[in-house]
Amino acid sequence: MAALTALSIGLAVAGMGIQAYGQHKAGQAAKEAGKAEKAASESQAELADFNASVAALQSTDAVERGEEQANRLRSQVRGAIGAQRAGIAAGNIDVGFGSAVDVQADAAYLGELDALTIRTNAAREAWGYQVQATDLRRRAEIARKTGVYQEAAGQQAARNANIAALGTIATGAGSLAMTRYGFGSR
Question: Which domain range does residue 118 map to?
Answer without folding.
Answer: 12-181
